[in-house]
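in:
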């Protein structure tokens, strides 16, 4: 696969992200070769959409909330053959696109995630995330899992499986990774790390966040849907 055959669309769902969105979009705008930026905003009442329009013409506003819905909407308005879904509060290394192109040279790869680490995390938080990343990497071959902070997928296979399940308030990323793995390889990019803010952990509490993850994952595995009815934004 060559760069002429494959280009990247970055899809970012947003809601009240004026304090984070410029940092991510400025990084994406400097990426070489250039990538397409698609922002889907859920009617933020701050300057999120205004800021996003400084970086891309593809800024859409939708009335219905739901991160799976926003991601699907963005994917439907993306033009390129490789889509990477990003959260608005992540920071990327300068060579992330190069790593993606290299990963998807393998025609059998249909999706990918990578190391996700906390920005300005404590020693304990960093240790936990290292363990979590290791677990995702180990299980990738038989039980693919991904977090939505960084989720790359071929557009063709994404559409083939119907995109994110909009009925799921959370774990829609894990569900999609599992369904994609039936069409090809869902891989973990070992030499790529992105960083996320710890705002949810700081506001809600580390143990509360992790216990919610575990409970929702258990319920999804056993009955096909998580226990949580909504996934509240933290700002």
């Amino acid at each position: 696969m060559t760069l002429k055959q494959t280009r990247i669309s970055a899809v970012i769902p947003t809601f009240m992200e004026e304090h984070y969105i410029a940092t991510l979009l400025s990084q994406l705008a400097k990426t070489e070769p250039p990538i397409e930026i698609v922002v889907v905003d859920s009617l933020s009442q701050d300057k999120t959409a205004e800021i996003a329009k400084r970086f891309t013409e593809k800024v859409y506003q939708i009335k219905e909330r739901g991160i799976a819905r926003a991601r699907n909407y963005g994917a439907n308005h993306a033009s390129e053959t490789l889509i990477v879904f990003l959260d608005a509060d992540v920071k990327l290394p300068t060579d992330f696109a190069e790593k993606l192109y290299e990963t998807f040279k393998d025609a059998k790869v249909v999706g990918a995630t990578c190391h996700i680490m906390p920005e300005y995390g404590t020693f304990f938080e960093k240790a936990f995330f290292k363990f979590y990343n290791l677990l995702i990497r180990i299980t990738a071959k038989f039980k693919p899992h991904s977090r939505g902070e960084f989720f790359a997928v071929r557009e063709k296979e994404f559409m083939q499986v119907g995109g994110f399940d909009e009925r799921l308030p959370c774990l829609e990323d894990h569900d999609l990774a599992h369904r994609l793995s039936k069409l090809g390889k869902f891989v973990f990019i070992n030499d790529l790390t992105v960083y996320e803010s710890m705002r949810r952990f700081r506001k809600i509490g580390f143990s509360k966040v992790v216990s919610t993850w575990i409970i929702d994952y258990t319920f999804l595995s056993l009955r096909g849907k998580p226990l949580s009815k909504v996934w509240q934004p933290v700002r």
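note: The first helix runs from residue 21 to 29.
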